[in-house]
Structures are given as C-alpha cells and as structure tokens.
Amino acid sequence: MKSGKLIFCFIALFMILGCGGGGGGENTASAARLVSVTVTPSTLTLIKDTTGQFTATGRYSDGSTKNITSSAAWNSSNTAIATIDAAGTATALATGETEITASLESVTSSPAVLKVVTAESLEITPAHPSIGMGATQAFTATAYLSDGSTQNVTTAAIWSSSVPAVAAVGNTGGSKGWVTAFETGTTTLTASWGGLTAGTSVTVTPMDNVMKITANGSLCSSDDYPNKPCVSVTICAPGTTQCRTVDDILLDTGSTGLRVFKSVISDLPLTPVANATGQLANCTQYLDETAHWGPVQRADVILGNEKASNIPILVIDASFASVPSSCGTPEASPAEAKLNGILGISLFKEDCGALCADNISNKYYVCGDSTCSATTAPLTDQLKNPIAALPDDNNGAIIKLPAIAWGGAASVDGVLVMGIGTRSNNAPAASSVVFTTDAYGEFTTIFRGRTYNDSFMDTGSNGLFFNKSGLSSLISCGDWYCPSSTQSLSATIAGNAVDFRIGNATDLLNTSYHVFMELGGPYASFDWGLPFFLGRSVYVGIEGKSSALGTGPYLGYSF
C-alpha cells in the first residue's frame, strides 16, 4: 500500500512537467475567507457559581458556515463577573454584566451579553395540595432571581419527601418532581437548588378505588420467598354483611380470578356453583408446577371500597371430592403455598373464556358423590376477574410500586388503583408506553437479537425470568442467575428499550432484604416479573374495555 502511494506521486509529477510547456498557467482556485463570527446565544443569564455554554459560528466568503467554537479565541470583558474558557464555557463569578466575544483569523464577533444574577428564593407549586390516594401529581420548582426574572429549575433541583410511604417523589430523569400518593396522611415535599430550599405539605386523601400493596411487608404473613406482592381482600357471603378480610393474598397479573384457601374463610356460607350433575370445581396449575384445586363458589368480593357482587371464586381445598390425576398434587394449606390466596387481575374477564366454555379441558370439572369429570364451563360460571366485575372503575388497573436501591430493601409499599382514566387518581401519564397483546396476554420482547413473541408481564413471578441467549456471564445457580458481578442489560418491548440489571442471587438472598430489582433466573422465553414493576406505573387494560389508552387487552407503563 505504501509503495503504491509513492508510485502515484511520481506519475503525478511527470504529468505536471509534461503539461508545463507554453504559458505559465495560474492556480485559479482560492480558499474561502472567514467573513464574520457570530456568538450564540446573544444574551445569557446565569446564576452565580453556575456555568453556561456559548457557541461560535464562522461564515465564509463562499456562503458556507462552520462551528468554530473550539478553535476561536474567547474573551470576557469583565473577568471579575465571569470567565470563559477555550471551549466557550462561561463561569459566573459575581453579579453584573460582561460582554463575551470570539475571534478567529483577525475577525471578531459582535459581543454577546452575559448577565450574572443570584437566586433570591425558591418556590414549589402547587402549594399545599390535597391529592387522592393512588394519584400521580407533577410539581414545579421555580427560582426567583435578583433581576426580577424567574427560572424553572424542576429538573435541576434535588427532591425529597419526608414520609415516602405516604407520597414518594421522583428524583431521576423525567420523574423529577412527580409525586405518587401511596397512603393517606401528610408529607412534606422539599426541593433544593442553588443553596436554596423550598417545601410544601402534601395531604393524601382516601379513594374508594385503591388497594394497598405491600411487597414482603405488613400485608404478607411471612417472608418465605422474595418479591412477594400482597394485598388484603374482603370476601362476603353473597348479599350479606357476613364477611372476612383476608391478608396475604398474592397480587397476580398472570392469572384471572380470586382463589382463597378454605381454612381462612371456613365460616362463610358461600354459594356453590352447580349444574344438573354436580358441583363445579376448578384446577389451576402454575408455571412453577404447583396447583390449586377446589370447588367454585359465589361470593361478594370487596376491593378497596368497591364490590364485585356474586362472582365465582375458587375455594382452595385439596380434600374436596376426588382430585383428578390431571391436577397433580395440589397444595393443601396456606403454610405449604406460603400465601392465603391469589387475586388474579389479568387482561381477561374470565378464567379461560371461550376456550373452556366451548371445550372440555383440564381446568373445570363437575363432581358427583365420589368422582370428578372434566367439563365445559359457561362464562357465567368461570372464575371472574374481580376488577372487570366492579360496577365502576372496571376497565383495568394500574399497579404503582416505588423504585428501590440496587441491592434490595426490606419491604416496599405501593398501590393497586382500579380503573384507567375513570377518576382523578387513575389518569394515565401522557408519556405512557402502550402496546396490545395477543389473545393469551403475550407480546414481543427482543433480547440480544432474539425475538420472543410469547413474553408476558406478571407480578406473581418474583424475578425477571428469561433466556440468556448465549450470555456466558449469566451463570445459573438453580432457579436463579448468579453472575460474578452485576450485569447491566437491555431488551426491547414494542420498540422501546427497557434497561435492567441482574445480580448474584446467592449474594442478594443472603442479605436481610426481601425485595430486589436485580433478581432474575432462566426461562425459555421472557417473563417480566415483579422487578419490572418497581419504579413504574404499569397499566393492565382488560379485554373489550376502553380507556384513554385504547381497548383491551393491552399493557402499558410509565415512570
């Protein structure tokens, strides 16, 4: 390659000499000359002790322009007010005004004016608001400057809440100044910027369409396993005030219907669902190979302060009738299952819809005196999504859980909000990412160049479970990944990148914490479990029901 360049040079020289006879030709090409220099912005106001950027643009005799910021010589007319470095970055030192110029090739710009002011005060708006439990409210931090002007410093300020369990405030990226109300009470919201601090009280009021979620917290009976989201559900004999409130109910977006162990509601006279040949029973099997079995009975189910009346639920009872072999060995007690029940609030109104209404499956059985036979189940008799059965706020739900620190937390409190866009506390964020799912509630995730069309979101899965796609650093340790160092990864959902981390499960689970954002394990497809929900508002749009986000089934999320 090098010798080729040399040969080319000799040939070029020969050609020039050969053409040199007759008249000494002139070089007609001339380089474009710098005509002017412009500095932008033409005026800039900076707070004392902050910096700002100027840009220099050169215009040439041939009409072209060029950014000459890094090659120009910069000057401040009063360096006691502000200095400016070779990159065009000005530093504000004292109140007053100075002129900024840029020069190149003996051409100097017209001066730009740099004004340095001080911040006199800081204000948060709205001041002292009351917001409904479950609502998300944007707050603004405004700085009042010594020249009488104001500056929005919301994204530059540091935000905090005195009682995050009542209302937490975002402090990263686009979440800065956004407050989510988790519990009734009062907290003080604080913004700090430029040596100034402002505060305002925020009062959270009760709302009928909200339920508290505790991940490994007060509503969970034990911490037998990590990332366990629990709610409290009130179950009543239909049409009566004979009720039982049951804690330690797993919140599960991956199933449909309420399932509760008989032992915790044994005193309630629920109504059996029966046909001409016997009692209807249900077998629900899960990805972890556990199963729940028992009779289908009708109950009133109260979520927050809203009632789903006379809906079919599963009363979990492994001793009921004769368990069919296709149901395996169902869990026999809350102690074995590590929960009192499961509240399934998936994308669907019924347990298995037309599939079970039109076909015999291993889901529904009719039980006589001693035997149970697989049967069809009409929609009216299938386990019902309690949210879809509410008189109001029945088009979906929003799950809001705050983010936690990497490395874990002892517990996390959040909210389940019934309805999407039906009240002041469930309006979806304008920046929400929304995508429809297929008839099974599944969607497409792309990870490391591989496409998984059967991925899903599931609060009932206590980790991020996915195919590592040949990533050798994700070492498996049983059901979990245990990389030697925390891995920063990214996948794509509906064209949007979702960043996540996977830590060493052995190390995480050996701490005193029970909730983790970086817990994950192997799976054939992609299961976006509870860690995905931490730090997000996740929308679950129920099939056939409309909201501002579209008609279900759909999923969505915002920060």
Describe the model:
This protein folds into four domains: 34-117, Sandwich (Immunoglobulin-like), CATH 2.60.40; 119-205, Immunoglobulin-like, CATH 2.60.40; 210-381, Cathepsin D, subunit A, domain 1 (Beta Barrel), CATH 2.40.70; 396-558, Cathepsin D, subunit A, domain 1 (Beta Barrel), CATH 2.40.70. The model is unreliable at 1-29 (pLDDT under 50). The protein contains five helices and 49 strands. The protein is mainly beta and 559 residues long. It has a seven-stranded mixed beta sheet with strand order 43-42-37-38-45-39-44.
List keywords for this structure.
559 residues; mainly beta; Immunoglobulin-like; Cathepsin D, subunit A, domain 1; 4 domains; 6-stranded mixed β-barrel; 45% strand
Shape: elongated
| Secondary-structure class | mainly beta
The second-level CATH architecture of the largest domain is Beta Barrel
Task: List the strand order in the largest sheet.
Answer: 43-42-37-38-45-39-44
Mean pLDDT over the residues? 92
Oligomer: single chain
* Share of helical residues: under 10%
Low-confidence stretches: 1-29
What's the CATH C level of the largest domain? Mainly Beta
Strand content: over 45%
The number of helices is 5
> How far is it from the N-terminal to the C-terminal residue, by CA?
55 Å
How many distinct folded domains? 4
